[in-house]
């Protein structure tokens, strides 16, 4: 088991990518803390993981809300003693994309990068505030303990 005794927080765990990652991490032995904007979706993913023999907890957390993220991370650290993996699979709501007039190209890539930077900073702080963890990085750049996947 590659992730035995590891603690993973998965943002956007109610979606296709997040739920698949959560199931894979749990199958490999991680204790997974699932978050999403829709409680019913992440709770269903957690129930499936538990029924398959994994360890999972679900919470309704909007990954764009700094106060909720900090509260959730504090809760995870108090329950699990630390965080080893933070996986961001949040989707960007169509209304946000429409409001920004996203059409494609380098300017739009900058929009998505700016959208995720607050989360990146929060995850970094949480991972390096003494709670444990590894170096946070973006998927597609350097390898590390923080992975972003946009849907």
Characterise this structure.
This protein is an alpha/beta fold. It contains 5 helices and 5 strands. Strand 1, helix 1 and strand 2 form a beta-alpha-beta unit. Helix content is 46%, strand content 16%. The chain has a single domain (7-148), classed as NAD(P)-binding Rossmann-like Domain (Rossmann fold), CATH 3.40.50. A 5-stranded parallel sheet has the order 3-2-1-4-5, sandwiched between helices.
Helicity, in percent? 40-55%
The string of secondary-structure elements, in order, is EHEHEHEHHE
Distance between the termini: 28 Å
What structural class is derived from the secondary structure elements? alpha/beta
Q: Could you say how many structural domains there are in total?
A: 1
Which CATH first-tier class would you pick? Alpha Beta
What's the pLDDT, averaged over the residues?
A: 74
Q: What's the overall geometry?
A: globular
Count of separate DSSP helical elements: 5
Tell me the CATH topology. Answer: Rossmann fold
Strand order of the largest sheet: 3-2-1-4-5
Count the strands?
A: 5
* Largest sheet composition: 5 strands, parallel
Estimate what percentage of residues fall within beta strands: 15-25%
Poorly predicted regions are 120-151
CATH architecture: 3-Layer(aba) Sandwich
Radius of gyration from CA coordinates:
15 Å
Provide the CATH superfamily. Answer: NAD(P)-binding Rossmann-like Domain
What topology does this entry show?
Blueprint: E1 7-11, H1 16-27, E2 31-36, H2 39-51, E3 55-60, H3 66-80, E4 85-88, H4 94-100, H5 106-127, E5 146-148
Parallel strand pairs: 1-2, 1-4, 2-3, 4-5
Helix pairs in contact: 1-2, 3-5
